[in-house]
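[recover] target loaded
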């Protein structure tokens, strides 16, 4: 048999596609041709595979080799195809059982000595294999724990090409001694540290209440105040009061982190809400995701089901800020490139912090502020109206007073707030049972004006603001979402007029400043 087959997986975004790897060995001048829209790193697998086979004491064909990656119209990238190419080539030469090789998915990078190295994106690759009905996957031993997170699939962890040959019934070839390689790891980060405690924040009762409402309803939040008031401290403590991820959410989040290379397989599924805080000098590609050929996830996707903090938000590039508008509405980001389109989940809670003016002193009486009116307007205009319209809660954070500092002892802990947040989320989840939404922040306006419609006497103030132009229809919907969250936290079946008024008051500070 001159054609060998194996299976691998191509990832476009988080969507995996099973790829058939075909290797044809024919008479002719020695050559190794790889076709099927491979990228540069995949084209280089020709040399890696040839050297790995030779150093593993396996047969290296001295003839013309053509490897096809089918479907040929699908862009393919990365070093994870190395193992599939090597197995298909060995099957074409009769070095292992063709049927066994053709029925399993192979994902892994080859070293020149034949040892396998871990790769990114194993979890979504195995999920795609399971969805396609493949029952067996062969991955590097370092990725085996990650692959085993997918139920119903037999995971075979291998360390060397000789192990792969034995798995598929080939001749028992001893593996050469391995030279330890330091610093080579598929995971980009270590174990996540526990979030800081809310008890560390001095005073700020109103801002703490807004933070609790944001956590309970999954609302986006803007903290506006002078430097040193505690905006960044409050934002960094939001993940500590969020409930843990469900099983389905944990798989989604872990898949994103696996593709981005920030997942530690030894820690298992990511079960705590992620927290991302890019610096204000970060590029649009770093925050939103991007890449020249196959896009990779950015901070908005790594923060999926967690918190994305843009500290000093007006200092971010305008393309970054305006690029937030689609994921804030849709819960995903679509990255279009010439060779294809990638979709990444991006349902995060956005937290923005901002000073009232460039110098930060335009608060209270504002007597110490030296900014001109033009400078203040230009600074506030960096956060556009369409972006702010998507932020549910816009909260002023005043400087800590002498009295608050004296009474700082005994602040409420994150655990106490998290208990109330979890109870409110359970109430909302029960109300939304049978719908695709899990918290008030995800409920669309059509549902708020339909099954969850409130009496006119309750929404009168918000509708008056809509009529005056102080609220857009989107803004009205976000006021109603926050009002439902206030009712859930306080144990009421439905929001009152006071809840709607309180939620509406949280949307005005930046505009009125």
């Amino acid at each position: 048999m001159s054609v060998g087959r194996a299976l691998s997986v191509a990832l476009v975004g988080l969507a995996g596609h099973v790829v058939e790897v075909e290797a044809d060995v024919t008479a002719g001048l020695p050559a190794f041709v790889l076709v099927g829209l491979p990228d540069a790193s995949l084209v280089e697998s020709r040399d890696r595979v040839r050297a790995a086979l030779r150093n593993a004491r396996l047969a290296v064909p001295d003839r013309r080799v053509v490897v096809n990656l089918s479907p040929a119209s699908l862009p393919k990238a990365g070093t994870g195809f190395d193992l599939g190419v090597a197995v298909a080539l060995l099957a074409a030469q009769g070095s292992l059982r063709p049927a066994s090789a053709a029925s399993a998915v192979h994902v892994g990078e080859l070293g020149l000595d034949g040892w396998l190295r871990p790769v990114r994106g194993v979890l979504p690759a195995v999920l795609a294999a399971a969805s396609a009905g493949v029952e067996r996957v062969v991955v590097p031993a370092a990725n085996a724990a990650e692959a085993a997170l997918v139920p119903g699939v037999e995971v075979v962890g291998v360390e060397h090409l000789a192990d792969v040959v034995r798995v598929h019934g080939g001749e028992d070839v001893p593996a050469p001694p391995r030279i330890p390689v330091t610093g080579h790891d598929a995971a980009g980060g270590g174990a996540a540290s526990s979030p800081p405690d809310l008890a560390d924040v001095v005073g700020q009762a109103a801002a703490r209440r807004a933070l609790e409402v944001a956590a309970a309803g999954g609302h986006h939040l803007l903290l506006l105040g002078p430097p040193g008031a505690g905006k960044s401290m409050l934002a960094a403590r939001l993940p500590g009061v969020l409930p843990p991820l469900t099983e389905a959410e944990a798989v989604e989040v872990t898949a994103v982190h696996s593709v981005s290379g920030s997942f530690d397989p030894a820690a298992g599924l990511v079960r705590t809400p992620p927290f991302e805080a890019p610096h204000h000098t970060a590029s649009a590609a770093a925050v939103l995701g991007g890449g020249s050929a196959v896009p990779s996830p950015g901070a908005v996707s790594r923060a999926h089901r967690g918190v994305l903090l843009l500290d000093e938000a007006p200092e971010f590039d305008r393309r970054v800020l305006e690029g937030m508008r689609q994921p804030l509405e849709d819960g995903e980001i679509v990255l279009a490139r010439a060779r294809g389109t990638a979709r990444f989940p991006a349902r995060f809670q956005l937290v923005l912090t901002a000073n009232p003016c460039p110098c930060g002193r335009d608060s209270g009486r504002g007597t110490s502020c030296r900014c001109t009116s033009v400078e203040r307007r230009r600074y506030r205009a960096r956060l556009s109206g369409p972006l702010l319209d998507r932020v549910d809660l816009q909260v002023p954070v005043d400087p800590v007073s002498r009295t608050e500092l004296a009474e700082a002892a005994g602040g409420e802990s994150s655990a106490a707030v998290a208990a109330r947040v979890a109870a409110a989320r359970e109430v909302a989840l029960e109300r939304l049972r049978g719908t695709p939404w899990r918290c008030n922040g995800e409920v669309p306006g059509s549902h708020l004006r339909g099954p969850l419609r409130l009496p006119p006497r309750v929404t009168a103030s918000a509708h008056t603001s809509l009529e005056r132009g102080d609220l857009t229809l989107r803004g009205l919907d976000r006021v109603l979402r926050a009002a439902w969250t206030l009712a859930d936290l306080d144990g009421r079946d439905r929001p009152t007029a006071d809840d709607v008024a309180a939620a509406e008051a949280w949307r005005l500070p930046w505009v009125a400043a």
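[recover] notes: Residues 452 and 494 are 9 Å apart (CA to CA).
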